[in-house]
Amino acid sequence: MNNKLMSKVFAWMAIGLLVTFGTGLFVSTNEVMYENIYRGAWYIIFAIIEIALVIFLSMRVMKMKATTAKCSFLLYSVISGLTFSSIFIYYELTSILYIFLVTAAMFGLLALIGYTTKIDLGKAAPYLFMGLFVLIIVFLINIFIGSNTVDMVASIICVLLFVGITAFDVQKLKMLKESGLPEDNLAIYGALDLYLDFINIFIHILSIFGKGDNN
């Protein structure tokens, strides 16, 4: 894979993560803003916008102008930060930073595996995404059940699934480079995929090992 493309992918992913974490931290320290988002209908509105944006980007990023794709990705990162801000209330900042570093180290290793492996990870992809679909259903059902054990086990499985998905996504980018698609658009496409992988691994590791402010 072209190193220039990989540099762009990881640079944009890092920018997206910084924007999300920065926005979340800012909102969590602004009591009025935080209350408005989480006590009213704004959280639902932002969550809907967030889902709509990620679907829109995933489907249209290759057909956009590069500038539009970059701006859309940054907007998505900001909206994600608004819905992400609660972690800075529920967990200690030192715990968040520590787990962020652990996730980054794990993510770097997974990206390296996906980049260098000769195994076709595409064969495992359908099973990984099928497992993820089942887990989403489990998480939704558990909202009503409220079982901490189910939540813990599902989070562990989710981390394991995204271990495979991350390696697959990096390998997929390696193959897409040869497709002749615009490099800047491909970088945003890859950055979005890897951003989502990173966030999911981070959130679930945090839910397993994170130390709450009330602990």
Structural features:
0% strand, 215 residues, globular, 83% helix, mainly alpha
Plain-language structure description:
It is a single chain. The protein is mainly α. The chain has one domain. The protein is 83% helix and 0% strand. The chain is built from nine helices and no strands. α1 packs across α9 and α7 runs antiparallel to α8. The longest helix is centred in the C-terminal third of the chain and has 29 residues. The termini are far apart. The model has no long low-confidence stretch (mean pLDDT 89).
Rg calc: 17 Å
> How does the overall form come out from the CA principal axes?
globular
Number of strands: 0
Share in β-strands: under 5%
The structure class reads: mainly alpha
End-to-end span in angstroms? 46 Å
Q: What string, H for helix and E for strand, traces the elements in order?
A: HHHHHHHHH
Could you estimate the helical fraction of the residues in percent?
over 70%
Tell me about the biggest sheet? Answer: none
- Number of helices, counting only DSSP H or I runs of 4 residues or more: 9
Low-confidence stretches: none
The figure for the number of domains is 1
In round numbers, the mean pLDDT is 89
